[in-house]
User: Fold this.
Amino acid sequence: MKILIFGASGATGHHLVSQALSLNHIVSAFVRNPSKLRVHDDHLRIIEGDVSDHKSVEEAIEDQDFVISALGPSNPFKWDIKLIAGIQNIVIAMAERNVRRFIYQSFLAVKDNRKELGFLINNILPVVINGVIVDHEAKEYFITESKLDWTIVRCPLLRNGPFTGSYRHGEYINSHSIVPSISRLDVADFMLKQLSDNTYIHKKPRIMY
Assistant:
């Protein structure tokens, strides 16, 4: 499979690239700064570009089978208008190039998802890291309004823990923890499994321990 990964140089993006390569996929990593991607492989193509530039996004999407996004704001207290424009560019370019399958990494605390997930997620996080939440809400809107075969993966707080392969997923699962978190390695594993599983097309599964 030919996979294009946006946000490939980020913490989760690195794991997506490495795991995809270990599964023998042909990977294109779209990054703003190639020096930040510390992965090397014969089946890896690094594409330097800016997601807010439609032409570079469209060229990267050409001839891909799947697109994955791990794009997120570098500052959790601000929303990044360039990233929101980037998701718009990705959605439009995928439609133009007839690439339909899109996996997007989002966050549990988006407004339409958090009501039953406890006091912290429903009341504290929207105040503390509102920029991240608003960013994901805006990007989710453009994705769900598209005609792509999208899956939005809603994650709790991400951490650099070990790979377990033992996690729960579903649209309505609840947390067993006051402050739910999950290893980025497990998130990458779940996102890549969506490439060969249609269960969550046009759905927004949660993932947690």
In short: Residues 81-97 form the longest helix (17 residues). The CA atoms of residues 48 and 196 lie 27 Å apart. The longest strand covers residues 101-107. The mean pLDDT is 90.
